[in-house]
């Protein structure tokens, strides 16, 4: 079974509008962390935001916020005021300590976001 | 401060050849890992290490070998390249709250 599920292979949004990218996860560990990464066409992996399972508030970083719903095991990324440069692949990832005490992220399959002018 | 350095950036191999992808980090992190990225599959974990002398298998370890003799270096060896190993390879290091990636190695096996 997949640990991280991103159900939207592709998303389109108009410039300056907000967009939500979905991510659900599966873990039985009480201590875990959730990440979002951006991969533009140039190929590099860019860290966007992190949410720990014990964090009381949703994480925010500039125009990025993580809508963390623990009971639903959901960690959606919200991008406000989309820009053309936001067009990229977006990956949700989770780290959990079950791998021999390690904290190595497991990734979803990604969502391709295209921002229209 | 280079962060995570991967070499080479591009490589073409013939089936059956062996090679080593290099990964070096100057961030003094304990955790290092190798992923491969294929279209529609996201990043899949090949091998990882939680410190010098300690390695373990990820989701797709077959055909790959690793060792970790120092904190800084975590090379990935392809023992006998196969066309199925054509992919983009990423090395990463990090903490519990952030993973830092190298620029990737695009490998083609013909």
Short structural summary:
With 117 residues, chain A is mainly β. Chain A is 0% helix and 48% strand.
Gyration radius of chain A, rounded: 14 Å
The helix-and-strand class of chain B reads mainly beta
- Please give the oligomerization state of what you see: heterodimer
Largest interface: A-B, 27 and 26 residues
Low-confidence stretches of chain B: none
Helicity of chain B, as a percent range = under 10%
Classify the beta-strand content of chain A into a percent band.
over 45%
Low-confidence stretches of chain A: none
How many beta-strand segments of chain A? Answer: 12
- How do the SSEs of chain A run, as a string of H and E? EEEEEEEEEEEE
User: How would a crystallographer describe the biggest sheet of chain B?
Assistant: 7 strands, mixed
- Largest sheet properties of chain A: 6 strands, mixed
Shape of chain A: globular
Question: What is the topology?
Answer:
The complex is a heterodimer of chains A (about 120) and B (about 110).
Chain A: E1 4-5, E2 10-14, E3 19-21, E4 24-25, E5 33-39, E6 46-52, E7 60-61, E8 64-69, E9 74-79, E10 88-95, E11 106-107, E12 111-116
Parallel strand pairs in A: 2-12
Antiparallel strand pairs in A: 1-4, 3-9, 5-6, 5-10, 7-8, 8-9, 10-11, 10-12
Chain B: E1 4-7, E2 10-13, E3 19-25, E4 31-38, E5 42-51, E6 54-57, E7 64-66, E8 76-78, E9 87-94, E10 99-101, E11 105-109
């Amino acid at each position: 079974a997949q640990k991280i599920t991103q159900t939207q292979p592709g998303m389109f949004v108009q410039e300056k509008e907000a967009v939500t990218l979905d991510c659900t996860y599966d873990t039985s560990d009480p201590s875990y962390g959730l990440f979002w990464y951006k991969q533009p066409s140039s190929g590099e992996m860019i860290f966007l935001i992190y949410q720990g399972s014990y964090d009381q508030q949703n994480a925010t970083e500039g125009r990025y916020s993580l809508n963390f719903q623990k009971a639903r095991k959901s960690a959606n990324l919200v991008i406000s005021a989309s820009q053309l440069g936001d067009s990229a692949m977006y990956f949700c990832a989770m780290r959990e300590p079950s791998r021999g005490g390690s904290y190595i992220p497991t990734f979803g399959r990604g969502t391709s976001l295209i921002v229209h002018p | 401060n280079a962060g995570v350095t991967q070499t080479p950036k591009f490589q073409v191999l013939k089936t059956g050849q062996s090679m080593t992808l290099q990964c070096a980090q100057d961030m003094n992190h304990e955790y290092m890992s190798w992923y491969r990225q294929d279209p529609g599959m996201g990043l899949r974990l090949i091998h990882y290490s939680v410190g010098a002398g300690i390695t373990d298998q990820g989701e797709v370890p077959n055909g790959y070998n690793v060792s970790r003799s120092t904190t800084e270096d975590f090379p990935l060896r392809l023992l006998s390249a196969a066309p199925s190993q054509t992919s983009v390879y990423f090395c990463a290091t990090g903490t519990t709250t952030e993973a830092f990636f190298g620029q990737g190695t695009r490998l083609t096996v013909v």
